Amino acid sequence: MLGDPIREPNLALVALGANLPSSAGFAGMPAETLRKALSELTKNTNIKIVANSRFWRTPAFPKGSGPDYVNAAVALSTGLSPQQLLAEMHRVEASFGRERKGPRWQARVIDLDLLAYGDLVLPDAATHDAWRALPPERQAEAAPEGLVLPHPRMQDRGFVLAPLAEVAPDWRHPRLGLTVAQMLSHLPPGALEGMEPATT
């Protein structure tokens, strides 16, 4: 862990995942794709990595939907707005062959998710609460038209919270009032089943 990300201005929390080899000229497997994506992201001088987690090996979600994932999380200090940062993340995804189409929760060459930007709630508290409360059967088919922060599913996902707890355990969710460490401890039994660190 590098530095104390919770004290950085313009703190952004980002989750990374991949379970397919890149098709954009990068021969490496998912872990190498994530390393190179971070390198590409930080070519933007307005983005600085403050802390990064280990890589984690994670069963595909939903179960049986593809090869195991490699997941990680980073804390960034950035001068970009949330929308600008998201656009830059999408640019990096596209450079690795990611196409943003098809069903949700499918196998991915790369997935960069903006989880949080400081304690910002976007677009507003009521809209965020509605997306966070979306029934499970709707989550797989409904996607918001604009940026929703914090990510409305982050508190439910072990593959997000376990890496994130390594870089920003004390970040507090502005709507739930819980830290990352607390959200991780509140996950139901079995939420981390099959997960293990892939790197030290």
Structure description:
It is built from 6 helices and 6 strands; from the N terminus they run E-H-E-E-E-H-E-H-H-H-H-E. Strands 1, 2, 3, 4, 5 and 6 form a 6-stranded antiparallel β-sheet that branches. The protein is globular, with a radius of gyration of 16 Å. The longest helix has 14 residues, at 82-95. 26% of the residues lie in helices and 18% in strands. With 200 residues, it is an alpha+beta fold. 34% of the residues are buried. Mean pLDDT is 86; it is low at 1-8.
Secondary structure layout plus pairing:
Layout: E1 11-18, H1 30-41, E2 47-52, E3 56-58, E4 69-78, H2 82-95, E5 111-117, H3 125-132, H4 136-139, H5 158-164, H6 180-185, E6 196-197
Antiparallel strand pairs: 1-4, 1-5, 2-4, 3-4, 3-6
